[in-house]
Design a protein that fits this description.
- Helices cover about 40% and strands about 15% of the residues.
- With about 350 residues, the chain is of the alpha/beta class.
- The chain is globular, with a radius of gyration of 19 Å.
- Strands 3-4-7-8-9-10-12-13 form an eight-stranded parallel β-barrel, surrounded by five helices. A three-stranded antiparallel β-sheet has the order 5-6-11.
């Protein structure tokens, strides 16, 4: 029903408009008495065999929502009703910023993909904190970044501001230095600045009475040599793990008319490369740290492939948009089926 009716209707409209329309609709539906319970009954699959304990957090299931969808923590409760095991908000920055000029979000229907150049548009970290104060039991990841106007040599301060502000309201952190849509941001993935950034956050973390896991989100476009650097950096800084991967700047094999738009590509074309990165990190590190696998998951088989490659958890974004909320339950059913083999 979703693909044949809902998606076919929504895909006639501008994708960013549809995003905001969907948010408003879900928030309004959530106010209808009994609807939240209806959604939980339809979409959630609660089974203790799905539970996972990763970097000290107990997840009710291993299928999460990737950052970028609920940037400002406006819809995490409603999204939790749809069956996700955890919700990652952001990317948030210290100060509000509008992001890049519109039009900045493009569907590639033939490739079942999306190109975005949003540019960390968000209401700022304090607005996210205000909304997260109402959270009761949804596992939240806080994806943090720097403001566009902040030069790279001062980027650490932006990440520290976000870390301190969110610390009491999220369960884990994600350091985003891999988005292609903020000028020069990916330069922070180089070994020296990245080590400095992560060590700075770990110093803040170690001063807390109870530390929070810090993860690093990396680009799929890194070379093998750079991925080996990532393994060394994780070991040196003692962060909790890696999210592999963010969007790609590659356009290889695309056939859709929007294929040459600038920005980060997500969806099916990213599937194989994201899996390759997961497998490389897992094997070369001898499974030394947890990996959250994201990129091109449009089916239960795609998710199982990521888990088999070495991921401990998976996240959806573009697959959620193309396949609908039913995909979460299908993946969890497939995981249960594989566990029973």
């Amino acid at each position: 029903m979703y693909k044949s009716l809902v998606r076919s209707l929504l895909f006639h409209f501008d994708p960013e408009w549809v995003h905001h329309f969907t948010f408003k609709s879900l928030r309004n539906f959530g106010k209808v008495p009994g609807l939240s319970a209806f959604l939980r009954n339809k979409f959630q699959l609660n089974d203790p065999r799905l539970e996972r304990e990763v970097f000290g957090i107990k997840f009710k299931n291993p299928v999460g929502l990737a950052a970028g969808f609920d940037k400002d923590a406006k819809l995490y409760k409603e999204l939790d009703d749809l069956g996700f095991g955890f919700i990652e908000i952001g990317t948030v920055t210290p100060r509000p910023q509008p992001g890049n000029e519109k039009k900045r979000l493009f569907r590639l229907k033939k490739d079942e993909a999306i190109i975005n150049r949003m540019g960390f548009n968000n209401d700022g970290v304090e607005a996210a904190v205000k909304r997260l104060r109402a959270n009761k039991n949804v596992i939240i990841g806080g994806n943090i970044g720097k403001n566009k106007i902040t030069p790279n040599e001062k980027a650490v301060e932006d990440y520290k501001i976000c870390f301190e502000a969110l610390f009491d309201y999220v369960d884990y952190f994600v350091v985003n230095v891999s988005s292609p849509n903020t000028p020069n941001l990916r330069e922070l993935q180089d070994k020296e600045p990245l080590t400095n950034l992560l060590n700075s956050l770990q110093q803040l973390n170690s001063a807390k009475s109870k530390q929070k896991p810090i993860l690093l989100k990396i680009a799929p476009d890194l070379t093998d040599s750079q991925l080996l650097d990532i393994i060394d950096i994780v070991k040196e800084t003692k962060i909790a793990g890696v999210i592999a991967t963010n969007t790609t700047i590659s356009r290889e094999g695309l056939t859709s008319e929007n294929k040459n738009e600038t920005g980060g590509l997500s969806g099916k074309p990213l599937k194989d490369r994201a899996t390759e990165v997961i497998r490389f990190l897992s094997e070369k590190s001898n499974k030394a740290f947890p990996i959250i696998g994201v990129g091109g998951i449009h089916s239960p088989e795609d998710a199982l492939e990521k888990l088999d490659a070495g991921a401990s958890l998976v996240q959806l974004y573009t697959g959620f948009i193309y396949e609908g909320p039913g995909l979460i339950k299908k993946i969890n059913k497939a995981i249960l089926g594989k566990n029973s083999e």
